[in-house]
Amino acid sequence: MTASSDVGYHAQRQARWHYGEAAFWLVVLACGFLFPTRYLIMTDILRLALFAMSLDLILGYAGIVSLGHAAFFGVGAYAAGLLALHGIINEPVLALIAAGLAAMVLGFATSFLVIRGVDLTRLMVTLGIALLLEALAERFSNITGGTDGLQGIEMQPILGEIPFDMFGKAGFFYSLTVLFVLFLLARRIVHSPFGLSLRAIKNNPLRAAAIGIPVNRRLIAIYTLAAFYAGIAGALFTQTTAIASLDVFAFDRSADLMLVLVIGGTGYLYGGLIGAVIFRILQEVFSTITPQYWQFWIGLVLVVIVLVGRQRLLRWVLYVPNLVIKQVAGRKAVVAAPESDA
């Protein structure tokens, strides 16, 4: 087997669906029926998961570090709010796409600044863009509502048929559908030759350029796509909460995103999804136990993850379940063993 065919075979194996992936999405879907009183927090987790996946596209696959990813989230949130408030696009799905495209335009325009620097420069540039947009949103308060945000946002029924309800059920399944569709698209992209070229760029940009990969064009493309995903997440925020304020541009939002990826891991799409679930559960539990010091406990969890290691913690958590499975499998093997002819 040649080297090229070996790489192609490995890529095909990675791109195949596994039973664990199907189980993951079935569990997420089942949560919508098993916890009908928790639609609001579950919808918040889905939005955060999509937002984290957008950052993972550039951080985990292209090596672009960003502390201002909330800029695209905020543009998407305000775009969806303004479109609904002024009746420009009343249908939520169309408004969602329009908001994502608005964030994509911003991502494309700023990508030329981001790709020119290295890690520290990129951190400062991305953070500066988010802070600049927050200042502009506060300056033009006649459009954005300033510190009060957009008032009187009323969302039309989804596809003209499914209205948003006060319990958040429609918002949950709407967000889940959007997340799953965009996940399928992202999964297809990262397992394509384009995605493999991104991994090569992350590992060694000079070597990638030497073998003919257009490094800058690849980075601009994935950065623009990540901005689209973040804009969609911001639009979902506005559509499911009917709120759009300056908080969507806040540094805390970008910082929380980095924490989610530290918990869940980068370089595979499920890291952002799993990290969002764990982060929100930890936040909910710690804020209930100690409302004033929940950030301390989350910080302590992050320190433990860094010191011990994510893989080792996972082995510890799964030790007892794996032990039980081995014992059950061993008993079945004993029972099923054929009797001797003697």
Automatic annotation (TrEMBL):
Q: Please give, as recorded in its UniProt entry, the membrane topology of this protein.
A: Multi-pass membrane protein
Q: Which CDD domains match?
A: TM_PBP1_LivM_like (cd06581)
Question: Which cell locations does it reside in?
Answer: Cell membrane
Q: Which UniProt keywords apply?
A: Cell membrane, Membrane, Transmembrane, Transmembrane helix
Cellular component GO terms, alphabetical = plasma membrane
Query: In the record, what terms sit under GO molecular function?
Result: branched-chain amino acid transmembrane transporter activity
Main subcellular location of this protein, as a coarse class = membrane
Protein name as annotated: Branched-chain amino acid ABC transporter permease
What residue intervals traverse the membrane?
22-41, 48-73, 93-115, 172-190, 220-246, 258-281, 293-309
InterPro entries named among the record's database cross-references:
ABC_transp_permease, LivM-like
